[in-house]
């Protein structure tokens, strides 16, 4: 039924790619009155957007590369996003141990002065000097002082999903596990060929937005049979996750001899996440995984700073992604611009336009989307005004504080453990009541898959958040993947298969 409707539609814009830039553009566009279609070949946020350092940050090190516009925009966006989604974004203090032979103190102080004052800062505290006491510091005794400043931590994949939900609630058509196999300009519009497990179908759109991330240039050349205006450099970034190597909720930003920096970030209460690397990647973005060189690099940087000495067998998990950066012909992967480039392609007035997104970062997705809408404004005279700056993302509505919501959940659901109440409040905000409904006990939440995951939540994730399989749920929706063993994953997969079968039977009936 849906397919027939899709085939009849000519949308204002069709977006290819369900990462943060794609859903950000789709959300902004539909909120301004445009009809929007978005397709993602896998799951939402299944590639670069869930393989980040999970930070909303100004990019302190970008100042060294004189990226002042990007840093100013990113610093201002920290405050905007904190207000839009306080359940999935939280302030975090960062400590930079001072290594005099790498960067002099005056240079760091100057950088932090800019960092404190370049962007509008209301919620976040400024920077200061810190002294380390050997008896209590997790750092090696020879590291005696450093600098502390503010940025934010974020659940990256949930940021993508919440934007997609908001777009859908305003009327956008969002489909996952659906690949765009080709698109042609015909009579002033795009005819877009799509393929999913049920077969092929097509839609039409007045404007095509290529937000395919690592595949942005490949999509232009192979699927559209056109020439790309910009080259793309794929830069691999990898992280390791280890048991917590220090107490407290502050992150560390470690300098290295190669002038790069590596973060050590508290992760999911009991782990430390260490990353990221920066190396050129030439393989298939679908197959990216950490290399032995990257593992050694991250372990060395951590061991140069912390008293707890890590070995390879301490690594619980790893993840890698590729950042699709606009090729500025820099020799150093770390120095390639993190700024975004928007390329509008239209050879003559009656030709359907193509807007391609090169680069970008999680923090500035909303501003990138506004820039994209500015680029295509001339094709839509009735386009509404920008609106996303003040609009709360799903789950932030009527949220007094995450702490008060946790208490509310604990009071209402008898038998709930504190860890699950916290996870629900941070992941869903006030939308948690959508799947808890009238339940007053954990025994009313259906099958228990372990670690605080119950059938009622799984059903909600399938119904409302495009989840299809256990990886979608455990890695990108709940972050429970580090706790589930093979048997628990298998039980969840079996439940999902039976759930999909029940739905199919219901649809047929």
From TrEMBL:
This is Glycerol-3-phosphate dehydrogenase. It comes from Acinetobacter wuhouensis. The keyword Plastid does not apply. GO terms for biological process: glycerol-3-phosphate catabolic process. GO terms for molecular function: glycerol-3-phosphate dehydrogenase (quinone) activity. Belongs to the FAD-dependent glycerol-3-phosphate dehydrogenase family. Signal peptide: none annotated. It comes from the Bacteria. The lineage of its organism: Bacteria, Pseudomonadati, Pseudomonadota, Gammaproteobacteria, Moraxellales. Its EC number is 1.1.5.3. Residues 12-329 form the FAD dependent oxidoreductase domain.
